[in-house]
Specification:
Blueprint: H1 17-23, H2 31-52, H3 56-61, H4 64-71, H5 75-78, H6 84-87, H7 97-105, H8 107-121, E1 157-161, H9 169-177, E2 183-185, H10 186-196, E3 201-204, H11 211-224, E4 238-241, H12 245-258, E5 267-270, H13 276-285, E6 289-292, H14 294-303, E7 314-318, H15 320-323, H16 329-342, E8 347-352, E9 371-374, E10 386-387, H17 390-396, E11 407-413, H18 419-431, E12 438-442, H19 446-459, E13 478-481, H20 487-499, E14 503-507, E15 522-525, H21 532-539, E16 549-555, H22 562-567, E17 574-575, H23 578-582, H24 607-625, H25 629-646, H26 664-669, H27 680-687, H28 693-702, H29 712-723, H30 729-738, H31 743-751
Parallel strand pairs: 3-8, 3-9, 4-6, 4-7, 5-6, 7-8, 11-16, 11-17, 12-14, 12-15, 13-14, 15-16
Antiparallel strand pairs: 1-2, 9-10
Helix pairs in contact: 10-11, 11-12, 14-16, 14-31, 18-24, 19-25, 27-28, 30-31
The protein binds adenosine-5'-triphosphate.
Domain DEAD-box RNA helicase Q: 160-189
GO molecular function: ATP binding; hydrolase activity; RNA binding; RNA helicase activity
Protein name: ATP-dependent RNA helicase
Length: 754
């Protein structure tokens, strides 16, 4: 690990041998080999010192110079290197250890010096650079070529107006005047007549194509026509199930608008995080269109006597593939049983941008001859809908997904160590040096969102001095959204990000589905999603309803095969170069390094200068993280949760995302940690069933009560469920003591988003 230690690394935390052994693809060097490498490195150092005339001391502070260049691969060596294990990627403990020794030896002495010196250097725009090895010993970045694919295209709009349908004139005028829409989208044109005819339907169309109104309009049309007029006391006539609270709120708001002329029809929303008592009272008064998350609906089915489904005529599952997915299945069964016991014949509608698998389970919700509706540009007018059974519907829905035409998708390959600075540079580029940019950054865990939120607010915002509050650049407005936040805060953030003109939303997949946040310009996937389907939903938060937008997927060199996975779903990405993202740092004087590279004649930013600035930024991150124990703990928690999430990729993707492919020292750096903390062994050993026996034993020793081993499916499920967790765990636990009776339901509740 010595090579990964900072030049002036003062860490007393030796790297656990377990991790070195997990990540060390090479056998240890013989004495002769070590000597040869030492000699070679010394030679290179000497050459550099002569070329740059770097004083010895300065060279110690910034060791990235010549060796960085050695890490820049020749085109030949760049080719076809995808796995660190295969690529000659040299993790800690390999070559370079010896060259760093003189420096690490003096670490005790430099500790005090570095701290004082760092402070002195601030304000002089020549920060003390502690992080010297950022650009060294990284795996090669392979050439990235997205395979040619035939993109699936969907036309968003039709030239047809809502007047052409046989709708109530007040409904049409509400669409025109309240929602400001006049012509139908393709999916609306296909779906509305089918649903008005009373048929069940399975609807798939690209993200942001207007699926909510595709079921909302016929639902309102049909309910307003019911005679005698619907009364509040009739209870629910339509049940709409959606996977997240924010989506529930959003759908509820749309129904409030649609129902403006039909005031006798009452919409209502039930969702986790809200007070049950208040919801019960509303249910007692009567809700005709009931929108709910699965968990909260189940909770009421079990505990609220006044909930009755005898009048339900419609069941709509929005984001149906998510609801039919792992974890929600049990809740859905409870909901369906309750509906089937009570209700008359009803219409069932399933919608999503990625409906494929899970359709065999449609039988379980007793769809009757569902019509399969999908939108494809190739289909000739009149656009046919397909009469199908659940089985044929399954066949007709391929796994090639349409993404919006105005979406420009990119990928950047970044070695683990550089991920944090690269993400920061990207955010600065978009939000500090450009105007009107609204970004959503997807991260794999709640803890990582919290960590990045605190870190970016502390480091990326301009600070004049330590006392003054950070100066908010107007566009550098960070927001966070994840399942462990209190509901009020979630709602506030959702509203704020919906309304703001620019900003950065750091979030988990809780924001991946269905949310219609206006004018989002970039979707950044800092951690790749667990499936191509989730990729489609995440990027679908931009370029909605015929507009344009962009996306950027971060991959490490060992993860580049993910591009092929996406290509197999007809999704292709253009490469963005890491260097060009990092070059943004040249615009920010706060990250100016020693500046001596400025003298160079070259017109563009020197690569070395960019690296130096990236190193300054990384140093700032590490200084912040190591400034106090709380920050270190937060970084460790984030790292641990990242590792846990990494073990949950499905087995079909383990060849790309396997915990063994991670270099933990490098990964730790992307959390501002100078070294991989000890104790991670237990986290990964318990999470990773394939970890060595030795690691598992160590983990057992350390943990008094090691968590139960889970199958990979269980882990995936529990991750998803914790992701969508209500955040009520503490409150529910205390209630548990008082009301044993409610225990089961409370657990169900906290287990789901609802
Ligand atoms: N006919 C229309 N004309 C103009 N805008 C429309 C029309 N129908 C819907 N919209 C708007 O398009 C946006 C996206 O609609 P919606 O959220 O229903 O998309 P979606 O297909 O459900 O997306 P996702 O798959 O991401 O959930 C919304 O802002 C909605 O108001």
């Amino acid at each position: 690990m010595a090579e990964d230690m900072l030049m002036l690394n003062i860490s007393t935390n030796p790297i656990t041998p377990t991790f070195n052994s997990l990540n060390r693809p090479h056998k240890s060097l013989s004495g002769r080999e070590k000597w040869a490498k030492k000699k070679d490195t010394a030679k290179r150092k000497a050459v550099f010192a002569t070329q740059e005339g770097t004083p010895t001391k300065q060279k110690k502070f910034n060791h990235s110079g010549p060796d960085n260049q050695s890490s820049e691969q020749s085109p030949k060596s760049q080719r076809a290197q995808t796995s660190p294990l295969k690529s000659g990627h040299k993790p800690s403990g390999d070559s370079g250890d010896e060259t760093e020794k003189p420096v690490t030896k003096s670490s005790a002495k430099t500790k005090t010096f570095s701290k004082k010196h760092t402070e002195e250097q601030r304000g002089q725009e020549r920060p003390f650079i502690k992080t010297s090895s950022l650009f060294r010993n990284n795996p090669d970045i392979p050439d990235v070529q997205s395979p040619a694919v035939t993109k699936v295209k969907e036309k968003v709009f039709t030239g047809n107006s809502f007047e052409e349908l046989d709708l109530h004139p007040h409904l049409v005028s509400t669409l025109n005047k309240v929602l400001n829409i006049s012509s139908m989208t393709s999916v609306q044109k296909k779906t509305i007549p089918v649903l008005l005819s009373g048929r069940d339907a399975v609807v798939r169309s690209q993200t942001g194509s207007g699926k909510t109104l595709a079921y909302g309009i016929p639902l309102v049309q049909s309910l307003q026509a019911v005679q005698p007029k619907i009364k509040r006391s009739d209870g629910p006539l339509a049940v709409i199930v959606v996977p997240t609270r924010e989506l529930a709120q959003q759908s509820f708001q749309i129904f409030q608008k649609l129902l403006k002329p039909f005031t006798w029809i009452v919409p209502g929303v039930l969702m986790g995080g809200e007070k049950r008592k208040a919801e019960k009272a509303r249910l007692r008064k009567g809700i005709n269109i009931l929108i709910s998350t699965p968990g909260r609906l189940v909770d009421h089915i079990k505990n609220t006597l006044s909930i009755a489904f005898s009048a339900v005529r419609w069941l709509i599952l929005d984001e149906a593939d998510r609801i039919l997915d792992l974890g929600f299945e049990k809740d859905l069964t409870v909901i369906l049983n309750a509906l089937n016991n009570d209700g008359p014949a009803r219409q069932n509608v399933l919608l999503s941008a990625t409906l494929t698998e899970g359709l065999s389970r449609l039988a379980a919700i007793s769809m009757k001859d569902p019509v399969s509706i999908q939108v494809s540009e190739n289909s000739e007018e009149p656009e046919e809908t397909v009469e199908s059974t659940p089985q044929t519907a399954n066949q007709s829905l391929t796994s090639s997904y349409a993404v919006p035409e105005g979406l420009h998708q990119h990928v950047v390959v970044v070695p683990s160590k550089l991920r944090l600075v690269c993400l920061s540079a990207f955010i600065l580029a978009r939000c500090k040096f450009e105007k009107g940019q609204k970004l959503i950054v997807f991260v794999s865990s709640c803890e990582a969102v919290e960590f990045l939120f605190t870190l970016f607010n502390a480091v990326l915002l301009d600070k004049k001095d330590d006392q003054a509050p950070p100066q908010h650049h107007p566009s550098l407005n960070f927001l966070k959204l994840h399942g462990n936040m209190k509901q009020e805060e979630r709602t506030e953030v959702f509203q704020e990000f919906s309304q703001c003109k620019s900003g950065i939303l750091l979030c988990t997949d809780v924001a991946a589905r269905g949310l219609d946040l206006p004018q989002v310009t970039w979707i950044v996937q800092y951690n790749p999603p667990i499936s191509a389907e989730e990729y489609v939903h995440r990027v679908g938060r931009t370029a909605r309803i015929g507009t344009t937008g962009s996306s950027l997927l971060f991959l490490t060199p060992s993860e580049t095969s993910y591009i092929d996975v996406l290509a197999s779903h007809n999704i292709s990405l253009a490469e963005m170069k890491m260097q060009s993202i990092l070059a943004t740092l040249m615009q920010d004087p706060r990250f100016k390094g020693r500046g001596k590279w400025n003298n160079k004649k070259s017109s563009g930013p020197s690569e070395q200068e960019v690296r130096e600035r990236a190193t300054v930024l990384q140093t700032e991150f590490e200084n912040f993280v190591h400034a106090n124990q709380e920050a270190v703990q937060s970084a460790k928690k984030a790292l641990q949760s990242f590792l846990r999430a990494y073990t949950t990729y499905p087995s079909s993707m383990k060849h790309i995302f396997h915990i063994r492919g991670l270099h933990l020292g490098h990964t730790a750096k992307s959390f501002g940690l100078r070294d991989a903390p000890g104790g991670l062994a237990s986290a990964t050993a318990t999470a990773n069933p394939r970890a060595g026996k030795k690691d598992k034993n160590k983990a057992k020793d350390k943990e008094k009560r090691p968590p139960k081993k889970q199958s990979s499916k269980q882990r995936e499920a529990s991750l998803m469920l914790s992701e969508y967790a209500s955040g009520l765990r503490q409150g529910l636990k205390s209630k548990k003591k008082k009301k044993k009776n409610r225990q089961t339901n409370a657990e169900d509740q906290e287990r789901t988003e609802g």
